[in-house]
Amino acid sequence: MRKTFFSTLFLLLLVTGLTACSKKNENMRSDHIVTGISADFDYLNPLLIQLSLSREVCTLIYPSLVKPSYNEEKGKIEYKPSAAKSWEFSPDGKHATFHLRSDASWEDGKKVTAHDFKFSYALYKNPKIASSRQHYLDDLLLLPDGSADIERSVETPDDSTLVLHFNKSLADEIVLDHFNDLMPVARHLFSSIPADEIRSRAAEMPVMGAGPFKVKEWKRQEKLVLAANPSSVLPHPAVTGTMTFLIVPEYTTRLAMLRSGQIDALISAGGITPKDAAELKTTNPEISIKPVRNRYFDSIVWLNIDGENYRNSRTIAPNRFFGDTMVRRALTYAVDRESIIDGFMGPDHAVIVNTSLSPAYKAIVNKTMEPYDFNPGKARDLLKTAGWTPGPDGILQKNGVRFSFELAAPVGNPRRNYAATIVQQNLRDIGIDCRLRFDESLIFLKNQNEFRYDAALSGLAAETLPFQLIIWGSDFANRPFNSSAFRNPELDRVIDALSRPVTGEEKTALWKTYQQILNDEQPRTFLYYYDELEGFGKRLSNVEVNLLSTLYNACDWKLNK
């Protein structure tokens, strides 16, 4: 508490004291971009990352097989060369061959080779590392115990050739999306570190990449400093010599620093609120506001299982509140999502959704589903049918249990904080006691991963169709993004089918079934996809943000003199 107070006080003094000198500071930072963010990164090791911004930064440090690119006109993701200069797939979809560049090197000068990728896949597989992307390897040839057979599945006939063998036919886009996300670490560096210790010793692990940036300094909860990597050919050394990510938990402080020129960009945690963005157009027209559309959604995660029971015995029992589909449907009817949008984002910056699918994929949207318009009366009726009736104090109860729970949310995100207060009042209106709890981002993530929250106001960057297929899965212990622990065999079947080569009407029908199941079951109350409005100062140029990433071309950002 004291540490947080003094950190905030320091930042406020920093803003006040340095505003008058912002011109001088700008001149001093001729080759140094400063970006304000709300919370620290979880890891800078691709084996361990879970937070979306951590992943974005890792793509600036580590090699990736390909470079995904969103074609807005076609509404689809396309892939360009990166560490792999070319690739091909077998006609049956069971084999893929990547031809790697021979001139890419790690920071210490050693070449990036196919052996680094194979070695890293074995690390991703290790259950002690517990990678959130471990299950990508389940598509490879398997051992009798059901785990990936890395030795048989991954061939490296030479330094520049990587051959993958799968246990089933896979769609090209699944292979490219999944294995591109499995960024490698340097074999010669990590081979001396016991795999079982990589997670427990994460704080002391070296960060060595081959991308346009390298890590210069990382002070936890304070800042991350990246420097241009002069040897990078993936795609080239960063144009600007230094990029600092400054951790400023308070949104108003971040905004003040952007106005004064102390930071050149304000990103993440919802970016800039629409109200402030509109004001900046008048008061600070030199600040550029760029929207990241159709990438992020917010939702209320209802834990479908008894979390304590699962943690203690690994047995699955329904959550006493949210294990009932009828209750979850009722809660979605009870939340006034339009009120949240109108009061905070405005209708131009958000669209209500009832599944996890991004509105970017208009061609496959299921338009026949129940819209769940705000209807407290229907919510009460469904809850009554489910056995929840008013108690002496007006709070619903069932079998002697009051409908009373905590709704958790991360600190530093004004959009989610605002939504939480609306949700709390909406639920109170139908007889549910919802208490709000705000935790620091890394604590929030840890608690959610351990199923410690009955309910959490959370979100995801869910920009690609292949990623949609890893959010859900009845094997939720190996699906860290399925934080509601939702299980549905029919959805498992649809996900498996969509992972295989399928085209045309069959593919569209499967995606519509995918949406229908989520719509009917409401494992989360899906709130909306929203525009994250990123702010960039007047000196910063050549910035491109899109569906895939805020830092999409950060290596090309430059400061004008």
TrEMBL record:
GO cellular component: ATP-binding cassette (ABC) transporter complex; outer membrane-bounded periplasmic space
InterPro entries registered for this protein in UniProt: Peptide/Ni-bd (IPR030678), SBP_5 (IPR039424), SBP_5_dom (IPR000914)
Signal peptide interval: 1-20
Family of the protein in this entry: Belongs to the bacterial solute-binding protein 5 family.
Any GO BP: peptide transport
GO MF entries: peptide transmembrane transporter activity
Cross-referenced Pfam families: SBP_bac_5
UniProt xrefs under PROSITE patterns: PROKAR_LIPOPROTEIN
Residue span, Solute-binding protein family domain: 78-465
UniProt keyword terms in alphabetical order: Signal, Transport
Protein name: ABC transporter substrate-binding protein
UniProt keyword Cell membrane present: no
